[in-house]
# Entry
Amino acid sequence: MTEGGNALKAGFISLGCAKNLVDTEVMLGLLARRRIEITDDPGEADIIIVNTCSFIDAAKEESIATILQAADYKRNGNCRALIVAGCLGQRYRQELLDELPEVDAIVGTGAWDRINEAIDAALAGRRTVIAGDSEAIYDHDMPRLVTTPPYSSYVKIAEGCSNCCSYCVIPLVRGKFRSRPIESVVSEVERLVAGGAKEISLIAQDTTSYGRDLYGTPRLADLLRALVKVEGLVWLRLLYCYPRYFSDELIGLIAAEPKICKYVDLPLQHAHDDILAAMNRRDSRADSERLLAKIRAAIPGVAIRTTFIVGFPGETDEHFAALRDFVASQRFDHVGVFAYSQEDDTVAGRRADQVAEDVKQERYHALMALQAKISEEIGAAHVGRELTVLVEGVEEDGVARGRSYREAPDVDGRVYVENAAAGPGEFVRARVVQGFAYDLLAERIEEEKK
Ligand code: SF4
# Structure
């Protein structure tokens, strides 16, 4: 698309989670399809799109700060259209446009496929909000410009969530749970693998609910069976699983299929039944303990990631002590901890018994410190172990940086490999020589080309 014979240029800033990143990549594809040039230099961009997050307060603040920074380019750059997409846009719509005169258009989470319409309106000087109920989900026919390294891609298998945890705004900003057809996901994975992807991370708000809406029954295991047949795919990784729907069939398949990473991402959020009930979570502590024991028994060497919220309204010292005890006894490989964020349009956000900020921070640091010690011990216990490492880059000192099956992209630690003699996208075999809280140091033992 040109103006006065010059190609229009667009810059993108993608905030938040991997699911939002996939939306960014689809919007990039839609712009590229009409020959809008994508630039990394916001200073030369005619159009700047900020794909926002509004999950918790900190994410909202970061989104607003990023929008205001981008607005500077309307004064000191070429920017003539500043567009806000994603969850913050969906959640606050007209209110956001009214409060931020610098912004020319808002595109909601269900309207990413109308991004070009928003660009046309903004360039024509019409400030607009394009945000309906979030019902859309992309499919394999959509143009998508993958921004992650070619050897590793995310694939969104479903959108939205119907679990309605009492603290969470996602059902509000992303709508009801809706799966993509198995054929659509398989086609996309085939295309990505043909383009060089060796690792595919399957994502959704709740991957384990896959198919329940579309097929009337969970079909994640069937989807995985179809995907492991894709020639050239090396690692298939599952992220964002919901404990209630983590079936024995799924456990068996992960254990049996060499291509499926022995990695389980299972946000549990808490471990005291009073708090779990108040969060509207469907699993008790005992349910989680049973599930974790089953997973560990069936999948030797499995790496387990989880997340917890501290400072949920009404959380007492006794509730928090139960959570600490659970973390100490379960010894997870990776743990993310969030201090509860009071979201005004949620059930929990309207509770009167909010926990004081300093107490939240105290509990946050206490749980992080406990987990750091556990991670260090787990790291040390890996010394001598052999791992296959996907190289992601090489440090200045020549040491390769990568991940094994135990580390997901962007959220977990790294495996550093000495004498790797390999570049990004290559797999090497390595033996761990030192373990740290979050990373491992290894030395290459033999090349495993795949
Ligand atoms: S399962 Fe996750 S995305 Fe869904 S409502 Fe609960 S916390 Fe939010």
